[in-house]
Design goal:
By secondary structure, the protein is an alpha/beta fold. The protein has 8 helices and 11 strands. It is globular.
Length: 274
């Protein structure tokens, strides 16, 4: 009988060791299902006019509301990733959901942008349903991701005395809400908060950082293997030679555009030669 007891003891010990091993072994983190572009991804940005679908790039960034479904479908047929733009930090009086914005969250108008007013992003209970509906529309239209604009309002005179902490909370909520829907999301400008937000966002999009000298702020995205998209505007006065070599060296996906972001070729720095 003693040998039977010993065998049972060995079996129980083996089972116990297996349980402990499983408990101590970390569960692998599943890979996100949404689009995660790497440095060097090519793209086109057009927010005004009929979208020209003929450019041979990996990603198109287009307007969520103004772009017809057939245009998005055509881009998908051509193998393009579609990112849909909307403003997450301002009210625009020409959008179809304009009546969803209560007056209580509307702040000061944006200088040089008629019809736009800042939002009080601290009032998340009032803003969340509006932005969730926009994210749901992006899913409905088949966008792989979104580009929420005006997510650095705390740096401006909004009429609400917003703090950096207010902006971090709002931007993190946007990223979480997008990911819950399987959408990729980019951090638009907001360079001062890159280090706090790089883990939450899948890529970055920057305007005129060579013009104003803050491009280094977005290197944490590159260091994590995430794309940094950007643009210099012709109206800014720089020549491509002033920024394309540096953008290429940094691994940034840089374009040259006009401020209206109409139908204009990408003029990508990847194609630049001295």
């Amino acid at each position: 009988m003693l040998w039977i007891v010993r065998i049972i003891g060995v079996v129980l010990l083996a089972d116990l060791l297996a349980i402990v091993t499983r408990a101590l072994t970390p569960t692998p983190t599943p890979e996100p299902s949404w689009w995660q572009p790497s440095p060097g991804t090519t793209w086109q940005w057009q927010l005004n006019g009929e979208v020209n679908t003929r450019y041979d790039v990996q990603m198109y960034d287009i307007d969520l509301f103004d772009t017809p479904q057939e245009t998005i479908d055509k881009l998908h047929e051509d193998g393009r990733v579609v990112i849909c733009y909307f403003s997450a930090g301002t009210y625009e009086d020409w959008r179809p959901d304009v009546d969803d914005f209560p007056e209580a969250i509307l702040g000061k108008p944006l200088e040089d942008w008629p019809g736009e007013r800042y939002l009080n992003i601290r009032q998340l209970d009032l803003i969340k349903p509006i932005m969730e509906a926009r994210l749901d529309l992006a899913v409905e239209k088949g966008c792989e991701g979104v580009e929420p604009d005006n997510v650095d309002a705390y740096t401006n005179d909004t009429g609400f005395d917003l703090t950096p902490e207010d902006q971090l909370a709002y931007n993190r909520w946007l990223a979480q809400a997008a990911h819950e829907r399987g959408l990729s999301i980019g951090l638009k400008n907001d360079g001062d908060q890159v280090e706090q937000l790089v883990d939450d966002f899948d890529w970055a999009l920057v305007e005129e950082c060579f013009q104003f000298g803050f491009c280094d702020q977005f290197l944490p995205f590159i260091e994590q293997g995430k794309a940094v998209f950007g643009v210099e505007y012709i109206e800014g006065g720089l020549e491509r030679a002033d920024y394309c070599p540096q953008a290429n060296a940094m691994g940034y996906s840089w374009l040259t555009k006009t401020l209206d972001l109409g139908d204009m070729p990408p003029n990508a720095c990847f194609d630049y030669t001295e």
